[in-house]
Amino acid sequence: MTDCVFCAIVDDEIPSHTVYEDDAVLAFLDANPLAPGHTLVVPKAHHERLNDLPADRASRVFAAVHALVPAVEEAVDADATTVGFNNGTAAGQEVPHVHAHVVPRFDGDGGGPIHAAMGTRPDLSDEELADVAASIGERASVDR
Ligand code: 5GP
Ligand code: ZN
């Protein structure tokens, strides 16, 4: 048996409530949901972080997320969804197998935006913003 819990779910060694499956992607309900319908979308292949996920597999994960968002919202009559990845342990990732969270949201549910996940915010000058934008831009190449 694999020691990755999501690989074990993909391999049917651990049961889960599957909501969608194709050759590259599995989506199933979170065992400790933040809301009814909280769904996890994973590549079937084991990759720890988005940074490690090949572009073609990333596209397949995003295509599934895109299709599942309206399905999840309609199934539980949600007003919206929060969609995100905890990408790395410093960001709160506990299961080291890439997964998107699709969390149904309801008007007045008491939750916050993704911004609420952060602590204090930096106060960056225009120059610092320009530097960091250039630095990211130099490194970003999108495989299509
Ligand atoms: P993370 O913090 O890594 O982004 O989130 C991991 C998520 O996986 C958590 O929301 C947790 O409830 C869920 N989870 C952990 N173990 C299992 C499991 O065995 N089955 C299912 N369905 N979800 C799990
Ligand atoms: Zn895995």
TrEMBL record:
Transmembrane segments: none annotated. Its EC number is 2.1.1.-. Keywords: Methyltransferase, Transferase. Residues 5-112 form the HIT domain. A motif (Histidine triad motif) lies at residues 97-101. It comes from the Archaea. InterPro entries: HINT, Histidine_triad_HIT, HIT-like, HIT-like_sf. The active site is at H99. One of its GO terms (molecular function) is methyltransferase activity. PANTHER family: ADENOSINE 5'-MONOPHOSPHORAMIDASE HNT1, HIT FAMILY PROTEIN 1. This is HIT family protein. It comes from Halomarina ordinaria.
